[in-house]
Amino acid sequence: MDKSPDAFRTISEAAEELDLPQHVLRFWETRFSQIKPLKRGGGRRYYRPQDIDLIKGIRHMLYDQGYTIKGVQKLLRENGNQFVVAIGRGDVAAVEAIAQSHQAEAEKTASEEEVLVGTPKARPSKRFFGLGRGEQEGPVTADAASLSRDNRALLQEALFDLLECKRLLDQVR
Description:
Elements: E1 9-10, H1 11-18, H2 22-31, E2 38-39, E3 45-47, H3 49-64, H4 69-79, H5 81-89, H6 92-111, H7 149-172
Antiparallel strand pairs: 1-3, 2-3
Helix pairs in contact: 3-5, 4-5, 5-6
């Protein structure tokens, strides 16, 4: 008796349908947080049809397209599950539509004004930046009009790096 296409699959049924060993499915669950089979008592896994479709896409990207696990993780992060599902189904029109919508969203985000996160605790002086003036003339202020978008992005990245360094130092102490 065949199951309905909407029925849940056990790990053995999913492995057979996907032509994968069961241990690979278990391993992929640890690497791809998007694969979330329903687990019943005793840890028995039941894969939903969406899980099967997603795994088909991941399998295609890893085995047929030659992507690494990190590469597929990045695709999932950037484009979402539906992109990888569409790839697994071979739905070229859906893949192009999703890619175009993500590209339009990225362009919109890039065109919006970037905002620096946080405020500095210390006030850097002009002397600190090698401009030869002392503290009495006040701190250097970041005029939004004088900084290019690239420079602002570099400063933002440096801020994140410094905050991560501080976090690591705080852990050591």
